[in-house]
Design goal:
Order of helices and strands of chain B: HEEHHHHHHHHHHH
CATH topology of one domain in chain B: MetI-like fold
Number of strands of chain B: 2
Distance between the termini of chain A: 44 Å
CATH superfamily of one domain in chain B: MetI-like
Radius of gyration of chain B: 24 Å
Helix content of chain B: over 70%
Number of domains of chain A: 2
Structural class of chain A: mainly alpha
Radius of gyration of chain A: 16 Å
Order of helices and strands of chain A: HEEHH
Strand order of the largest sheet of chain A: 1-2
Distance between the termini of chain B: 29 Å
Oligomer: heterodimer
Strand content of chain B: under 5%
CATH architecture of one domain in chain B: Orthogonal Bundle
Chain lengths: 93, 288
C-alpha cells in the first residue's frame, strides 16, 4: 500500500509523532505519579491532566494562527507565548 | 469493606471504534495537515511551502468576509430558531390525540434531504413563477433573491428556519415533558403567573436540552453547504458565500489544495473550540 497520496513531509510527521508522544507520556506520568483526577482551577472548571493537555494544544493552535494573521513569520514569538500559556494551563487551570 | 472490581479488558471493546475513527477521521485529517504545508500541481508531486498558505488565508480579505458572513448567519439562525422553537414547544399539547399529530408534523421538515430543501425553496421563491416570490411581488414588495443580496439572505434564513426550527421544538418539547406535574401544582398554589412558571420552572428544566439544541444548531449552521448552494449558489455576487461554499470553491473550483487545506484546518479549529466551550459548559452544569 503506497502512502504517496498522503503527501507526508518530515515536519508534519514530526508534529504528529510529537502529539502521539505527548499522549504516551501523559499515560506514563499518570502511571508513575497518579494525580490526574479532576481539580478546580482558576477558570472554575474541573479539569483532568488530559483536559489541560487539550486546552494547551487547542489554545496554542490559536496563538500560532493569531500570530500568523497579525505578524506573519517568523513564529518564535508565538512559540514563546504558547509555551508560557501551556505551562500556565498545567499549573493553574 | 467492599472492593471495587476493575476490569480493564473492557477497553478492548473500544478498538473497533478507534479503528473506524482512525480511518474516517484521523488519516484524512493527517492528509489535510500534509497538504496544508505544500503546493501541488497534480500527479502526487508536492513542493514544501511551510506556513505560507496559513498566512495567506489568515490575511486574506476573502476569508475574513466569508467568516464574517458565516458568523452573522449562524447568529441570526440561533437568535430566531431557539426562541421560536421554545415558543412552539410551549403551545404544543402535552396530552391527547393531537400529540402524535403535532410531533409528526414537526418531524416532517427534518426528514427532507438538504438538496431537496434547497431546490424546493428555489422554486418556491422564484420571483417570476414561485408562490413566495410571485406572491411578494404581487403584494408590492420588490423581491428577487437572485439579484438582491438582502432578499437572498432573507430567503436563506427563512429556509433554514423552516428546515431546522422543528429540531429545537422537539428537543424543547422533550424537556417540557420531563417536568413532573407537582412543579406546576406547587406554582399554582404559590400564585405564580405564566411568566413566572416559564422563567423559574420551565426554562431551568429545559436548560440541558436547550444547550444541546444550541450546540447542534450552531454546528449545522456553521457548516451549512448544500441548502444555500442549491438555493443561491453563494450569490448574488459573493453575498451568501459562506465558509463551506468558499472552501469548496477554493478546493474544487480552483483546485488550490494547499490554501484549501489550510482554510479547512482553521475552520476545523474554530468548530473544535466552540464544541469544547459548549461541552464544558454543559458538563459544568451537570456536575453542579
Amino acid at each position: 500500500m503506497s502512502l504517496l497520496w498522503m503527501a507526508w513531509t518530515w515536519p508534519t510527521a514530526a508534529f504528529f509523532i510529537g502529539i502521539f508522544l505527548a499522549l504516551v507520556s501523559m499515560g506514563v506520568w499518570e502511571y508513575y505519579r497518579p494525580g490526574g483526577a479532576p481539580r478546580r482551577g482558576i477558570l472554575t472548571l474541573d479539569t483532568t491532566r488530559g483536559d489541560r493537555l487539550f486546552i494547551s494544544l487547542l489554545g496554542s493552535a490559536f496563538i500560532f494562527l493569531g500570530w500568523l494573521g497579525l505578524f506573519g513569520t517568523p513564529l518564535w514569538g508565538a512559540l514563546v507565548i504558547s509555551l508560557v500559556y501551556g505551562y500556565s494551563v498545567f499549573r493553574w487551570v | 469493606m467492599a472492593t471495587k472490581t476493575t476490569n480493564q479488558k473492557a477497553w478492548l471493546f473500544v478498538i473497533p471504534v478507534v479503528l473506524l475513527v482512525a480511518f474516517n477521521a484521523v488519516i484524512p485529517l493527517m492528509t489535510v495537515v500534509n497538504y496544508s504545508v505544500q503546493e501541488t500541481f497534480g500527479d502526487n508531486v508536492f513542493f514544501w511551502e511551510g506556513v505560507k498558505w496559513f498566512e495567506q488565508v489568515l490575511q486574506s480579505e476573502r476569508f475574513h468576509a466569508a467568516l464574517g458572513r458565516q458568523l452573522v448567519f449562524t447568529s441570526i439562525i440561533l437568535l430566531v430558531e431557539i426562541p421560536l422553537g421554545i415558543a412552539v414547544a410551549l403551545t404544543m399539547p402535552r396530552k391527547g390525540p393531537w400529540v402524535s399529530v403535532c410531533l409528526v408534523l414537526m418531524a416532517l421538515p427534518l426528514l427532507i434531504p438538504w438538496n431537496v430543501v434547497g431546490s424546493m425553496w428555489n422554486i418556491f421563491a422564484l420571483p417570476e413563477t414561485g408562490l413566495l416570490g410571485k406572491g411578494l411581488n404581487v403584494l408590492g414588495f420588490d423581491y428577487n433573491f437572485t439579484r438582491q443580496p438582502l432578499a437572498a439572505w432573507f430567503t436563506t434564513i427563512l429556509m433554514d428556519v423552516w428546515h431546522w426550527t422543528s429540531l429545537v421544538v422537539l428537543l424543547a418539547y422533550a424537556g417540557l415533558c420531563s417536568i413532573p406535574d407537582a412543579f406546576y401544582q406547587a406554582a399554582k398554589i404559590d400564585g405564580a403567573g405564566r411568566w413566572a412558571i416559564f422563567r423559574f420552572i420551565q426554562l431551568p428544566k429545559m436548560k440541558r436540552v436547550l444547550t444541546i439544541a444550541i450546540l447542534l444548531r450552531f454546528m449545522d449552521s456553521f457548516m451549512i453547504y448544500t441548502e444555500p448552494f442549491v438555493l443561491t449558489g453563494g450569490g448574488p455576487g459573493n453575498t451568501t458565500t459562506f465558509l463551506s461554499i468558499d472552501l469548496v470553491k477554493v478546493a474544487l473550483g480552483q483546485f488550490d489544495l494547499g490554501p484549501a487545506a489550510a482554510m479547512s484546518l482553521i475552520y476545523f479549529l474554530i468548530v473544535l473550540l466552540v464544541c469544547w466551550v459548549f461541552y464544558t459548559l454543559m458538563m459544568k452544569d451537570e456536575v453542579e
